[in-house]
Amino acid sequence: MNAVVNTLHPAPPPRREIIPSPVAAMLVFVACEVMFFLGLISAHLIARSGVPDWPPAGQPRLPVAGTAFNTLVLLASGFFLFLANRRFAHTGRLGKARNWFTWSLATGLFFLVAQGTEWVRLIHFGLTIRSSMYGSFFYLIVGAHAVHALAALVLMLTVWFPLRRGVMPVARFQAAQVFWHFVVGIWPLIFAMVYLR
Amino acid sequence: MRSCPAISFRSATVLLALFLLLAAAPSLSACPVCFAAKKDSRVAFYVTTAVLTAAPFVLVAAFVIAIRRRMKRQSLNSPLPQDGSRQDLCPSQR
C-alpha cells in the first residue's frame, strides 16, 4: 500500500523545547514583579530624601538584628532549593532532593511567620500603615514581599505533595524555583533600603 | 489666474500670535520632586529614573542570553533528530 503524502500541509520542522512553558511564563511574571518592586523602592527613596528626619520622630525603630537573622534564614532557604534542584538534576534521585526541598519550604515558612510576628509587635508599638509615610512605605513594600513569599510557598507546596508520593512535577518544580529565588533575591535589596538606610 | 499663497493670512496671524505668547511667557521650572527641592531629592530622582529605565533592558537582555546559552548547550548535547520527530512532545504523542 502506498503511503499518502500530504503535500498541502507538510509536517512542521522539528522543534526542540528550550525552556518549559511554565518556566518561561514564570520568568515573564518575575520580570514584571521586579519592575513592580523597583517602582516601590524608587518611590520610597524619593519620598524619604525629601524628609529631614527618617525614621520620623515618635515612630518605632525597625528591628534590624532580628530581621538580619531572618534574612539569613531566607537566604538559606534559597540555597536549600538550589541544592534540591542540583540533587535532582545530577542524580535524578528524589530522596535527597525531597529532603532539601522540605528544608527550603520549612525555612521559608519560618521567615514568613517571623515577619508576621514582627509586624504584630510593630503594630503594638504604634507603627501602622496610617501612622506616617514611614509606616505606609514599610507595610507597602514589606507587605508586598510577604504576599509574594506566601504565594511562592503555596506554589512550593503544590510541588511538595507530589514529591512526598515519589513523583516530581518537573516543570512546576522549575517554575516554583524561579519564583522562590526571586522572592529570596529581592529581599536583601528591600532589607538594605527599608531597614538599614 | 491668481496663485494660491503657501500660507494664508489668517494662519500666519495665528502662528505669530502663538509665537508671541510663547516668547512672552516666563519659563516654567517644574520637576516631580518640587515638594522638596533639595539636592538629595534630585539625586534620588535621577538615580531611580536611571535604574527604572535600564531595568527592562537588562531583564530582556538576561532572558535572551539565558535562552541562547540553553540553545547552545542543547545543540551540543543532543543534535536535532533527522527523522523529523517532535522533541517538544512526549513519545506517546509523537
Strand content of chain A: under 5%
Low-confidence segments of chain A, given as residue ranges, are: none
Count of alpha/pi helices of chain B: 2
Assign a percent range to the helix content of chain B.
Answer: 55-70%
**Secondary-structure element order of chain B, as H and E?**
HH
Give the radius of gyration of chain A.
22 Å
Largest interface: A-B, 22 and 30 residues
Number of helices of chain A: 5
Shape of chain B: elongated
Structural class of chain B: mainly alpha
* Topology order of chain A in helix (H) and strand (E) letters: HHHHH
* Oligomeric state of the chains in view: heterodimer
Query: Terminal Cα separation of chain A, in Å?
Result: 79 Å
**Share of β-strand residues of chain B:** under 5%
Mean pLDDT of chain A: 90
Largest sheet of chain B: none
Low-confidence stretches of chain B: 84-94
What is the share of helical residues of chain A?
over 70%
N-to-C terminal Cα separation of chain B, in Å? 78 Å
- Shape, per Cα inertia axes of chain A: globular
**DSSP summary, beta strand count of chain A:** 0
